Amino acid sequence: MAERSRSLWLRTTSAGRPDPPLTVERITAAAVELLDEDDVGQLTMRRLADRLGVGTTTLYWHVDTKEDVIDLAVDAVFAATPPPPPGDDWRADVTTLLTERRAALLRHPWSAVMRRRPAVGPGFLSWMEFLQATLTRAGFTSRDVTAASWVLYSHVQGSAASQATLRWSAAERREGQLMLERYSASYPTLAAQRHLLDDDWDTNFALGLAYVLDGLTARAAAGAT
């Protein structure tokens, strides 16, 4: 793999680079601001350099590609909500961790869908360390820790990504539900559940998380016998 294509946290630092009038922290903060303000596709190295008041050459002293900037910005969203102090109830710890993560993703919707490389930044690693340590404390071992942590991670990421990207108006939801009812012979359950009218994201996330934790609790209990 070419060095340039790897995550910036796995890359060796080039020797002899001048000390630029920038810091990684300033670059990251400016990138997050731009991503919050504009469509993801509008992030360019030129726009980021303009926001920082420098030339692109100066910016490239610290980051090699736009992918580096995205890695930094996504990790900053993880770091913005550090894990809570561990408590006596592992389910409560996991619920707090994932609920706060979802809130952070919804404050920065681009971060729910932008990650393109494996996350190895300190913000993500601290978050995942807390999650896996909590599962280990609950009695999970070996492969179960990894599988359970990715189930939970996928639940919070998927919930936030769906909420951030699905932009239906109330009128469109009603029209969609009427369509389901017209074709209820093909979609009887969806029509009866009023599927396309459901926009209670908070309740669906909380219930889904409870279902996952119920299954994990049963799994941990079975493994302990």
Question: What distinguishing features does this structure have?
Answer:
225 residues, mainly alpha, 63% helix
- For the secondary structure, the number of strands is 0
Instruction: Give the % helix.
Output: 55-70%
Computed Rg: 21 Å
Largest sheet: none
**Helical segment tally?**
10
Q: Helices and strands in order, then pairings?
A:
Elements: H1 24-37, H2 45-52, H3 56-59, H4 66-80, H5 90-107, H6 122-138, H7 143-165, H8 170-182, H9 188-193, H10 201-224
What does this structure look like?
The model has no long low-confidence stretch (mean pLDDT 87). The N and C termini lie far apart (46 Å). It contains ten helices and no strands. It has 225 residues and is mainly α. It is flat and about 60 Å long.
Short précis:
With 225 residues, the protein is mostly helical.
